[in-house]
């Protein structure tokens, strides 16, 4: 640490000057000294300065004994405190150590190197305590996160839980979860956006996402609105910090989550280990939910096929059979409308037989030549035809 900022609270001017000289002569580096002779003055300096440690005499004009330490410790924001004491005050100094002071030194036995070493060690021990407490909290958070995400296999619920737990791990004002589906990235969950971006599709080779995928660790962007790589999903002009994190399952990137923060420098590399552990649990939960949903969908479709097979083998009523087939198709495939066209081998025409979910009766008069329209092409080619945007169709009867 370069030149630690030391606060000395000592009312004896001779002792204060001696401490100042010792710090100048110490072999343990240079120190920036701030000093005062009262408790009230010390508390003011604590709030006004970026301090690293406090040297405290327990006997002050406005406070005496252990109460002095208690008052300083309450106002110190976790700063390490070394008690400076005379031979008569050692019992109070020991009690202060039991209450959280890092160390105590008797004034009669201090020299420059002892003082410098005590200050450096106290700062190091305090930082180790802070790191340990932070690590413990991170483990507790990850355990709670794992338990929370294992309570459901519904994908939408899993994504909501991920956002709830993310708020504990990383602060954010808005965020989105992107999942890889074929060759696109689809927004499957969002928080904090004024406009909905759910199910919006983005190119998978976006420069930032590609960089995250290649490195397989988070990317931080400060001042993202000024970064040409940054794609501002929702025109958030207040965003000052952005982080993108890969969701990795079995060494395969299955998606990403991105977080926006309105505060500058809200994210740092020190958070990478924690956020990657979180992302690993999240990816596992997402894949579990996906597999469960796929299994449930397959089971539902097999049940539909059994129902259709039962109708076909037990009934000669064409109308009943087609209506049940349509019911199963609409329910199993989760579509809004469906129709059955029958191929006439004599005329080579496709004739409308039954439909469900259409707002118009015009389809009932549909007759298509083999190879004409999408239905005619599907029959001729004996393959599925998928149209991603039906809005481009001009007339239903022509293209159907």
Largest sheet: 6 strands, antiparallel
Query: Outline, from the CA principal axes?
Result: rod-shaped
Number of domains: 3
Integer average pLDDT: 86
Our estimate of the beta-strand percent is 15-25%
Straight-line N-to-C gap: 74 Å
- Within CATH, the superfamily of the largest domain carries the name GAF domain
The H/E string reads EHEHEHEHEHHEEEHEEEHHEEEHH
Instruction: Kindly identify the CATH topology of the largest domain.
Output: Beta-Lactamase
Helix content: 40-55%
CATH architecture of the largest domain: 2-Layer Sandwich
CATH class descriptor of the largest domain: Alpha Beta
Secondary-structure-based class equals alpha/beta
**How many DSSP E strands?**
14
Explained architecture:
- By secondary structure, the chain is of the alpha/beta class.
- It folds into 3 domains: 5-132, Rossmann fold, CATH 3.40.50; 150-293, GAF domain (Beta-Lactamase), CATH 3.30.450; 315-399, GAF domain (Beta-Lactamase, 2-Layer Sandwich).
- The chain has helices spanning 13-25, 39-48, 66-75, 90-98, 112-149, 155-169, 207-215, 272-314, 318-333, 373-381, 396-399; strands spanning 5-9, 32-36, 53-57, 81-85, 103-106, 174-181, 184-191, 201-203, 219-222, 241-249, 252-261, 338-344, 349-356, 367-369.
- The strands form 3 sheets. It has a 6-stranded antiparallel β-sheet, sandwiched between helices. Strands 2-1-3-4-5 form a 5-stranded parallel β-sheet, sandwiched between helices.
- The longest helix has 43 residues, at 272-314.
- The protein is rod-shaped, with a radius of gyration of 35 Å.
- The termini are far apart.
